[in-house]
Amino acid sequence: MESIKAGSEGLRVGRPLVLTPEERRGRILESAEKLFVESGYVDTTMVRIAARAGMSKRTLYETFPDKREIFTAVVNFQNSVPPLPPVANDDDPRRVLRDTLVHIAHFLLEPRRIALARLAIAEARSLPDVTQNFFENAYDVLTRLVVERLELLIGRGQITIVDTPQSVAELLLGATLGDSLLRYLGFPDRATELQKEELSRRATAAITMMAAGLGLPSS
Prior knowledge:
By secondary structure, the protein is mostly helical.
């Protein structure tokens, strides 16, 4: 474990903090994310990240070899997606799918997530592989969650599909999101205007339109 002292960028001054490697990594990523969003990639330096995290440059470099690695970790949100809400065996499959789509769309459209998308796009020329991985990762992680729900419902005999779960997941999620990500890309703070009620309406409409392909009775 590492002892660090609170720095001058908002951390409480007092006794050295003893952090586990996981806690230290989390502090670095949290501090770096704020700096990247505030100042951009170029103007965010390892020195500034260390200061914001309240640790020495040596400690920072022991955790991450360079700024690129930190940036890559910041925009990779694979492990930050909240788990899907639990479902009971007798839950209505329409409700299960609706809640799943709303859960994922709400996560993706949080201002923080949109800010990270803007950040990845801004560095597309200097870090093309990182930007590509960001969007591919986001797409794969989120659609995989819908696939998991579809496969669960198929296994229960509650729905049947003639296409692949991946294709159906893409269609459902795309219809729920619509142009929301593009609409709010330049104004991440306004994404909160798209409340869960609106996302629920979109998800319900998408499921209704695809009811026949899901083996659901028309409502």
